[in-house]
């Protein structure tokens, strides 16, 4: 029977070790994607993520067809779907690239055991991270809990492998098998169609990912170190959703950055270093998740369990979600998120600090909103960064560091360009009054934090 390549968070043809292994295996190859939002512990995707997945699968289908490989789409608990398909096709082997979430790993381990017991060859590969989580440890053999020594250890480890070549042709399996129609999955919104702004901003798929990388390294990297904190200057790479869905590998991004570094000086050289260290934060978040699989629900620092969150003030949460808090930098960010499925990193920090510290709303509710609305909503980076801002996470900002959204706006949007882009009614009566007082709420947050400190 054929070899099956099971695609998951690696929706690309280039630098894909599982696909190359199948090609080398001398059996015809068929590809599979399973939409699994049912298995225990698997977090159903948010709306914006569904939109992205639709585009990415459409693009992958075409890219694979060009190589002669058919992508089968099936839906259901992965354990059932994958083992049944292997039986149905009498598959000789199943290949995939690894994932690092707890529930995902448990599923993959079970499938591996079941298939091997049935005589099916199974092999998994490293493709979504630069460094496998179990290879980066402190001298004492523990995971790192602070970014700087973590990234230093990564850079001292054997370097990430070079991206693998893109196959030109593959001997595709010619048999027949049931396949869902992508449209039937209804991943795109219809009534109402809220994705207009997302569609204008983004193009999912591998080709688009490589174009973004090229553009960034050719045009923007020189402004990155200076401009990356100013949301009005579009000087960041906008690679996050492409990396999230594996349309481009971190190895490809890393290698292109190293190549660009050759002979680079001044702001280009500093921009590249800074950019590569941001890839390091992505690695750190994934490694932290690997060691703390409950990252999206559980305080990484358990002393935060004592934090006295007041009863939820639902209208405050809604004002935050809808960008109606009366604080322009917060509202601009929340509206950018709703309109485009993305928010600039600096503004993500400001809006998250405002929710957790000025509104005293549990970080998990903010994390969940981002998960639903971000096109790059990631099982590691999203909870990791929320906990970082909230103060409960690994290498977190100290809790008493409360961003003042007005000072942040002065510093990072000095001409008010970003705020005006998203709040056309700014300065008129239509714009709401501030819903809370910054100084008062800051004091309340610090008093609540005292409870955590005392419980230690
Ligand atoms: P660039 O500045 O060009 O950075 C390059 C790449 O580095 C990014 O594409 C991303 O993969 C990685 N990166 C950069 N900063 C971080 C970071 N702080 N943590 C992890 N990786 C990083 N990023 C996500 O990819 N998914 C999320 O769900 C997510 N949720 C976040 C929630 C909060 C509250 C905060 C404060 C940050 C979050 N981030 C998340 C991190 C960061 O905001 C985005 O990765 C970044 O804004 C993406 O834009 P870019 O691709 O232009 O970034």
TrEMBL record:
Family: Belongs to the DNA photolyase family.
Keyword set, alphabetical order: Chromophore, FAD, Flavoprotein, Lyase
GO MF entry, a single one: FAD binding
Protein's name in the database: Deoxyribodipyrimidine photo-lyase
Cofactor(s) this protein cannot do without: FAD
Keyword Hydrolase tagged: no
Domain Photolyase/cryptochrome alpha/beta: 1-130
A Pfam family: FAD_binding_7
Cofactor binding comment, as recorded: Binds 1 FAD per subunit.
UniProt-annotated site: Electron transfer via tryptophanyl radical, residues: 309, 363, 386
Binding site for FAD: 224, 236-240, 275, 376-378
GO biological process: nucleobase-containing compound metabolic process; response to light stimulus; response to stress
UniProt superkingdom: Bacteria
The keyword Lyase appears for this protein: yes
